[in-house]
Amino acid sequence: MNTAEIISIGDELLIGQTINTNASWLGQEFAKIGIKVKHVTTISDDAAEIKSAIDTAFDRNDIIVMTGGLGPTKDDITKHVLTAYFNSELIVDEAVLKAVTDFFEKRNRPMLEVNTLQASVPAVCTVLPNKNGTAPGMWFDHKGKVLISMAGVPYEMKAIFTDYALPKIKELYAVNSLVQRTVLTQGIGESFLANQMADWEDRLRADGLELAYLPSPGMVKLRLTSFKGETDIPLIEDYIAELLHRIPKNVFGFENDTLPDVIGHLFKQNKLSLGTVESCTGGAIAAAITSVSGASEYYPGSLLTYTEELKCNLAGVSSETIKEFGVVSSEVVTQMAEGGKKQLGVDWCIAVSGIAGPTGGTETCPVGTIWIAIAGTDRTVTKCFQFGDNRERNIQMSVLSALNYLRCELLGLVE
Amino acid sequence: MNTAEIISIGDELLIGQTINTNASWLGQEFAKIGIKVKHVTTISDDAAEIKSAIDTAFDRNDIIVMTGGLGPTKDDITKHVLTAYFNSELIVDEAVLKAVTDFFEKRNRPMLEVNTLQASVPAVCTVLPNKNGTAPGMWFDHKGKVLISMAGVPYEMKAIFTDYALPKIKELYAVNSLVQRTVLTQGIGESFLANQMADWEDRLRADGLELAYLPSPGMVKLRLTSFKGETDIPLIEDYIAELLHRIPKNVFGFENDTLPDVIGHLFKQNKLSLGTVESCTGGAIAAAITSVSGASEYYPGSLLTYTEELKCNLAGVSSETIKEFGVVSSEVVTQMAEGGKKQLGVDWCIAVSGIAGPTGGTETCPVGTIWIAIAGTDRTVTKCFQFGDNRERNIQMSVLSALNYLRCELLGLVE
Q1: Do B40 and A392 touch (CB under 8 A)?
Q2: For residue B120, what are the β-bridge partners?
Q3: Which domains, from first to last, does chain B contain?
Q4: ipTM of the complex in this document
């Protein structure tokens, strides 16, 4: 399998002023054609560092992609380093000069001396045109390997790579047919999942598939990979079907699905409407649901009732119930969800009440205790969740748990 | 100057499924104490790769920070590689075992065999406790240099680094006397700001200070840096005072302030209460306000009225007003804000109505048009904002604009 290395150049990356999104985008692009990015190396705009990084990269990988250090300002030295590295000289490329001149004319901006310099490229390189900027991409063949240098501005880099570099890479290398599927799970921890599916994982690996656990708060993504290509698709589908059969409450989607997307799809499909009555989540469930364009078709609105007073006045919770059971209780979230259904005029309603923290916990109801209710067409179900101490994370976990609990109840998966 | 290298471990980073935000966060933290991150190296969960990366890093830098590869599943091998690298052996650390046990008990989750393994650490390391997870951080002293290994989950890593690694680093290394202040602005673009403050920036640079513009959607952070140390603090304060004087509507805070923090502080200080009536922002303003712990003291709740029906029924908007002026209008947001004040029983109320997009725009009211109203004790003010085509960004910009508009009106800065 051919391998690649990404060399990202720029002090702004090292001091954390800019997040290296270029490297992850390139990693995805290479993965799609079955070329493995084995190293990402970030260094400063320093000639010795750049030279040394190129040496190392040529030693261990087939394709080097460099981004950054090609701007018109003084601290961008990549082009000069490359010219020296490949024992070449800078020449003016007439096509690039015309492109740069056109670029400024089109924008009615004066062209400066420094901009003209961008039309100089090492004589040995093949120019990869940059339609979104002035610094051209450069392709170098070197002892059977390849080095590609591109501007660091993401939308310039992406266009150069997609339009000019990628087709040449596909011509040169036997790009294989790596096949990947990602299964999204909610409500089950990484280790718990690994334990419960241990036999499945063993068989999957014995069949030559790879499995990766990609956890994030409240979610674990399972990535199944085959390097054999499309012939393995039925095998992968079988393993996914088994997963769905064994943990249906947890598997909520695939690939780039999000829970709000999945919920939106279900409500649109079934021509149902949804409302929410939130407390400790503070509007975060509403914000998640409405992150989907077109949410207004099934989601007319919501109530945020932080105080007991608003729980009673807006959502119709009885103050006696609060007195008897406490505001974080199955009884109160039931009344919130059922009251919300009426008040918002919806078919289904989620209600949440809990202690997001970091303060407000008690002995019997510690920080991280969250009650969730789902009022549906026929019944209302409730469930208590226990998360941790971190406010932001508790809110995030509550949002995902509430949406997945709604999904399960809607699909008849809740007892 | 001491230098550092970050080694990020994980296939998910190489194939671009996860963006390496840990490296940029660590880069920022090191920059703050004057230690330069010279290299960021990303590699896969592979023993030979990890060993080789450590060798290279020890050759060229003083401090190595490794993140990732410490989870309980089979593909996480970092701990074993480190144990071998430092010729040590794994021993059970009783304090870690207790912490892991407590972690599961507190969450009412059963502890598995694989979780117990997380309490094993190389005998030669100093444990850096992980209060947010089960994999402890590890500190290794090696020939006058240091290697720190931490979990890759950002909020676990950040807590370990801040609470345990950073204090030890500060003890060991002559961290220099770099002084930085960050000023937070809202509602003014980077180039506009640079243009308006050009004379200020020139003087500031002539005085030997550095200035960086750090833009993010709806906000620009200005970072002022002196490498001379504390003697420059009065100078920096003078420049900040001038900024505050010249663009008071835009400067909303400093350092790690957020607009919800600033708003919360103002409302608590003035013993006032706040409500919100949202439409196109879909609960995102409420979620922002309640991201602050203790928001319930001044924020009893909110209404999300996506549909016209709920705008009328819940917030008391007149359907005639909607017919006459349209639902995205100064008149409607005024009624939403004033109706919200009554319905929620609050002193101040924000209301927002607009077209978040990507669909729903018209010729007279294109996508990105957002009306915001602030109803206060004495009057209601409204303002129309025009953002772009991107739904997520429009929502984000609306949240920041609404909160800053509220801040300005509360402080008497709106004409």
Answers
A1: no
A2: B92
A3: 3-172 (3.40.980.10), 179-254 (3.30.70), 259-410 (3.90.950.20)
A4: 0.76
